[in-house]
Specification:
Layout lengths: L8 H18 L4 E2 L4 E9 L2 E8 L5 E7 L5 E7 L7 H5 L8 H5 L5 E6 L3 H15 L6 E5 L2 H16 L6 E2 L7 H4 L1 E4 L5 E7 L3 E7 L4 E7 L11 E3 L9 H17 L1
Antiparallel strand pairs: 1-7, 2-3, 2-13, 3-4, 4-5, 5-6, 7-13, 8-9, 9-10, 10-11, 11-12
Length: 260
């Protein structure tokens, strides 16, 4: 992973909620077949930082929505051949080791990037692509469950406040349950550490410099890695919100931030 492309904490805590707000706002114009769920996984991949969208159904096309090195909106499609499961699908299959023919199939991955002049157009393109990938009928309104990701925004903000002087870069590998493995942090002068979610329900921040070591801990509420996916179709469960209310809620957050 290219360290210069990994975002700083200050950048991650600003861009991730922006991406979700754009996706949430555009979702009101689209629908999905019942039972389909989509999770968002933060990822840094080939000069792109954003979210990879992971559906709960098999597909050979995976979509990533994010910003390139110049901060421009990008929608990336990774197309996998039939013999090559993605790293995400492998991770959700119990960690089975790949056979040699599956390893060789990685050479057949095709990556297509489309750049947009504005975020709403890029977000609309994401939902349009998902609608083509999963075109079954009937269709249902999309509901959003954002509480866990919003809690992670707060976690990044707390970590940044503790490390404001160095504002380290943070690595996102784009794997399920990555928070439990820990997000790697790297400073510009040899400092290093990690941000990890413990099973007992707390975040831990560990940071080491050439002259000192520091640790911090705070509660993880609500849980970042909840059982519910970020977006779903069909009957929404507890905590789900309609996309039309997503933008309004985001506006209230902005007002609250300005007041602080």
């Amino acid at each position: 992973m290219s360290e210069p492309r990994c975002p700083r904490l200050s950048q991650a805590k600003m861009l991730l909620p922006l991406l979700r707000a754009q996706l949430g706002g555009a979702a009101s114009h689209y629908s999905l077949p019942p039972g389909l769920e989509v999770e968002l996984l933060p990822i840094v991949e080939d000069e792109l930082f954003g979210y990879e969208l992971l559906p709960n159904r098999d597909t050979h096309t995976y979509v990533t929505f994010g910003a390139d090195a110049n901060g421009m909106p990008v929608v990336r499609k990774n197309l996998y051949c039939t013999a090559s499961p993605s790293a995400l699908r492998l991770a959700t299959a119990g960690g089975r080791a790949l056979m040699q023919h599956e390893l060789d199939a990685w050479d057949d991955i095709e990556q297509r990037d489309t750049r947009y002049s504005d975020w709403p157009s890029a977000a609309a393109a994401v939902w349009s692509e998902l609608a083509k990938l999963f075109a079954e009928r009937p269709r249902h309104t999309i509901s959003i469950r954002d509480a866990g990701h919003a809690a992670f925004d707060d976690t990044l903000g707390i970590a940044h406040s503790r490390l404001r002087d160095c504002d380290p870069r943070i690595e996102f590998c784009g794997i399920p349950d990555e928070a439990h493995y820990g997000f790697v942090l790297k400073g510009a002068r040899g400092e290093h550490g990690n941000l990890v979610l413990r099973s007992r329900g707390s975040w831990e921040l560990h940071w080491t410099t050439p002259t000192a070591h520091a640790d911090a801990q705070w509660p993880a509420t609500p849980p970042f890695d909840g059982a519910d996916a970020w977006a779903c179709a069909g009957e929404p469960g507890a905590g789900a919100i309609h996309p039309m209310s997503y933008a309004a809620r985001d506006d209230h957050r902005k007002v609250a931030r300005r007041r602080r």
